[in-house]
Amino acid sequence: MDFDLTFKDWQEKIKSTLGKTEWITVLSRSELHHDVSRGGFYSALVSNDIVDKSLENYSWDLLIGHGMPGFVTYSKGGESITEYHRFSDDGIEPIVYWRDFHGVRENYYEISEEFRLYFNLFEDKKSLHDCVLIHIDDNGDDIEVVKISKNEVKIKLKYIKEFLAAKKMRLAIFFDFMRFSGKSLEELKLEEMNDVVKSDDYIYSVCVRDIVIDTDKSQGWLLGKKLISGLKDFNPDIFGRNEKRKYEDFIIGIDEDGNSILHTCDENKLANYFGKNPDAPHYLTPVYFTRDVLKKYYDNPDKFSVDDGNISCRGLWSLRIDNNHPKYVIAYLGDLGHLHHKEQLYWRSYNISSQEGISRVAWKRGFMAEFTDPERPDLYFKYKFEIFQKAWFDTYGWYLFKPLSKGDSHHLDALHVPTTNDQKEFDEQVLSLTKILIDSLNEKKLVNGIGLTKENPKGIDKFELFLESKKIRLPGMLEFIRNLQFLRSTSVAHRKSDKNRDYAKARKYFKLEEKSHQEVFEDILIKSIWILNSLENQLLKEK
Asked: Which domain, by its residues, includes 402?
């Protein structure tokens, strides 16, 4: 197939879209360009001070593999002077480095260290030639910024533009493409060409000529560069990334016709206790959300923490919430404005109107300055479990429930009443609770406490014998634990079957035919709290 040797298609790209797409190719080899025979892209950073000089010549300002730190020797006043230079050419810096180890080790490309550090990029390296550099934004989301493969390096436009503005430099995108034809110019009805095309941000040469190389009789050659500027309105901001903050409108009530009343969460447009914006809603106006707003955070315990009265994304952000309300999750209007706009949009999708007021716990803590235990069963269970574990250890010198490993810690961290009536979420929470209360029973210490041998029963039966050794009988507790284990082993770990007597027994015991999954799990948590209280009363307070 013969391609246009005059490169009209590529000339149009250079003048229009090159350097303006979401991803900028700063290096590529001809293998990726099936419409050319040889060539590719390379790039360098060019100081604004030498832009005019750079655009005087269509040749590349920096070759692949050049620009490394080293020594430069020059003559001054008849004297030879040697100096160390970070970059070998004044005003020219590599953005991509070719790491060449002369066959001793495999060669590869890497991005400028300064660029990586400027955006604090995380390196997700699959292999030597397959790497993605990721920026973690203010919301805790992963943003791919650089993609490196064996034959190509790309940088996201938004990031390279900021970097250029910060350094007061341009990105010079160099290109060098050749096309060959088995026909002569006369056969192609083309004339010989050797033109230079120049504008205020690009310069290139187009050469078309007859040649004799193997079976080829003619050649087209496109060589040049285009310079990309940084952000025009860049304003260095040591506290952020210069993004203009956005604020969503949230439902804060209804009008006399029953229509939703919306108001911005921008703190600067809200009233406070010091007389600011007296006619606007108060910063502490409660905003209501359906409880499934929390599912996203419970499903990602490695990234998010949902605690009593608070949600946080590691060290990036946190949001004060009222999650002790029996029906809703509530946040204050002004607090929502501190979230990243992406997170505001997420919360807005679960926003509803209500006039029920905040929970008793939130009222006492926030407005009466009183210490108050959580009321929701999932929150109270985790609160009580931590207290119980410490008290048991202080009494016996070992934990009744072995602390979860790092790989299992999410079972406690993300334990919650299901946010929906979904079977999958219910099964996951049953599994988590059995991991905490049953799988974690400290059998080794229970054995030491009652002198059992290896042939003795394990698990729940062993726990029962331990209680009997302490002259404690709690048949209701053991019945509950066994049915919880049946529910886990016959419903979660294996296929559900009504023919399984243990599964049928567990379904009847927990009234799964009569109640929603949320109601059933709330009951399970309340009984679990009762277990902790009973053990505390019987085995700890007497010590």
From this structure: 377-540
